[in-house]
What we know:
With 156 residues, the chain is of the alpha+beta class. Helices cover 33% and strands 35% of the residues. It has helices at 10-20, 25-40, 91-105, 122-130; strands spanning 2-4, 48-53, 59-67, 74-82, 110-116, 134-144, 147-155. Strands 1-2-3-4-5-7-6 form a seven-stranded mixed β-sheet, with helices on both faces. It starts with a strand and ends with a strand. The model has no long low-confidence stretch (mean pLDDT 96).
Amino acid sequence: MIRKFLDEDREPVRLILEACGVFTSREIDVALEVIDIYLTNQKQRDYELFTAVDENKKVVGFFCIGSTPITTGTYDLYWLAVHPDFSRQGIGRTLLSYAEELIRSKGGRLIVAETSSQPHYEPARKFYESHQFQQLARIRDYYNVGDDLVIYGKYL
Length: 156
């Protein structure tokens, strides 16, 4: 089941991000900053968060999207993660499909997802590609020397 993100989802999502084993502590901190903005500022319109929960209401994954400022119909997929214990069960696909439908319902026409070129991000890149995202751009040495920004997009 997918539902809107709740206050009590913050800690399980932090644990998911840590368990994934690919995110740096700084990346996790940024995710938590976004979550805190979402949870504490009812007037914010930058982020929408949803969680996937199992039959026992355990949080097993989440995503965060937001309309890209000063665009018409472009949305950023900021985060999408599934706990490794639940990988390869279609949860990521289900979360992405839900996000796509939500974006479509808001008049969205393009989803942009950014990731790193580092080897440990290869599963993320393959995930996007397997769901009809195309590599739109690559900026060399963006995050650090030898760590490119890889930008994927999917037109709806």
